[in-house]
Design brief:
Blueprint (H helix, E strand, L loop, with lengths): L1 H6 L15 E6 L2 E5 L4 E3 L1 H14 L3 H17 L5 E5 L5 E5 L5
Antiparallel strand pairs: 1-2, 2-3, 4-5
Length: 102
């Protein structure tokens, strides 16, 4: 598109400019950090914010609802929601849920 616009004598779009909007990271159950430059949070408030932002970036209501239900179930049952990709027999890659007993 850019080359075609230039050949037609039309002005090019403005160049891309990266704008860092902040950093979010979970540390564990009910613990996270958030740094937006003008606002810094840690602990449970940052954890709730991280969850809300994560859900907000998911595509589609169905995906959002499924993740919220999965997270609530994991939270209530005290089960880790971690999934591991491991190498199975004969080099076959498989996905399995990690249990807290491992």
């Amino acid at each position: 598109m850019l080359i075609g616009e230039e050949l037609r004598g039309r002005p090019a779009d403005a160049p891309f400019v990266y704008r860092h909007q902040g950093s979010l990271a979970t540390i564990g159950r009910k613990s996270a950090v958030a740094d937006f430059g003008w606002l810094r949070l840690h602990g449970a408030p940052a954890w709730w914010l991280w969850g809300a932002v994560h859900i907000g970036f998911l595509a589609g209501f169905r995906n959002r609802a499924a993740v919220v239900v999965n997270w609530l179930w994991s939270y209530v049952t005290q089960r880790a929601g971690i999934r591991l990709i491991t190498m199975g027999e004969r080099g076959v890659v498989r996905l399995r849920a990690a249990s807290s007993a491992e």
